[in-house]
Amino acid sequence: MPPTLALIAHDGKKDALVQFAQEHLAEISHFHLIATGATGKRVADATGLDVERMHSGPLGGDAQIGARVAEGLIAAVIFLVDPLYAHPHEPDIQGLLRLCNVHNIPVATNVATADLVLRGLTP
Questions:
Q1: Is 56 or 50 the better-scoring residue by pLDDT?
Q2: Which of 9, 79, 81, 113 fits a 20 to 30 Å CA distance from 91?
Q3: Per the domain annotation, does 2 fall within a domain?
Q4: Could you tell me the pTM of the whole model?
Q5: Within 13 Å of residue 9, how many CA atoms lie on the same side as its CB?
Q6: How far apart are alpha carbons 7 and 43 in whole angstroms?
Q7: Per-residue pLDDT tens over the stretch 64-114
Q8: Residues 9-50: tens digit of each pLDDT
Q9: Cα(62)–Cα(91) distance, integer angstroms
Q10: 42-46 long-range contacts, Cβ below 8 Å, gap at least 24?
């Protein structure tokens, strides 16, 4: 099975993640993709790639991805964060970021870092 790449984006960053996925289609097609609900649907619709969808972030999707990070099943997380808005599920977001740090999993919170992480993962 190919390595797993998790894709997450706050509402204000979903367009940016879709654009990122389209621009890096060749690279991300080599990964098993998982994503939170609406983000996964948007990426799948825009790219034609198969994306395993978790719950939406506020309904536990961040926690589901965090569990996979803790199990060692995720190669990297791309989580485009919208820093200009408060998020009611902030504890889940921080929990996921903490798990990435605890388990030494690359996590990108903006497009520039996502590009670098993806380049580091692809041969």
A1: 50
A2: 113
A3: no
A4: 0.94
A5: 22
A6: 9
A7: 999 999 999 999 999 999 887 766 667 778 889 999 999 999 999 999 999
A8: 999 999 999 999 999 999 999 999 999 999 999 999 999 999
A9: 10
A10: 42/14, 42/17, 42/18, 43/7, 43/17, 43/18, 46/18, 46/21, 46/22
* 70 lies in some domain: yes
Whose structure tokens read 């990108």?
108
According to DSSP, residue 30 is labeled: T
Question: Is residue 34 one of the residues assigned to a domain?
Answer: no
CATH number of the domain to which 110 belongs = 3.40.50.1380
Quick one: pLDDT at residue 89?
65
Q: Which among 15, 50, 62, 92 is annotated as catalytic?
A: 62
Cα separation, 78 vs 96, in Å, equals 11
Are 89 and 99 spatial neighbours (Cβ–Cβ below 8 Å)? no
Structural domain harbouring 107: 43-77+93-123
Distances in whole angstroms, Cα of residue 66 to Cα of each of 27, 32, 84, 122: 23, 16, 23, 22
Q: Is 62 a catalytic residue?
A: yes
Question: In the predicted model, is pLDDT for residue 54 greater than 90?
Answer: yes
Q: How many domains does the chain have?
A: 1
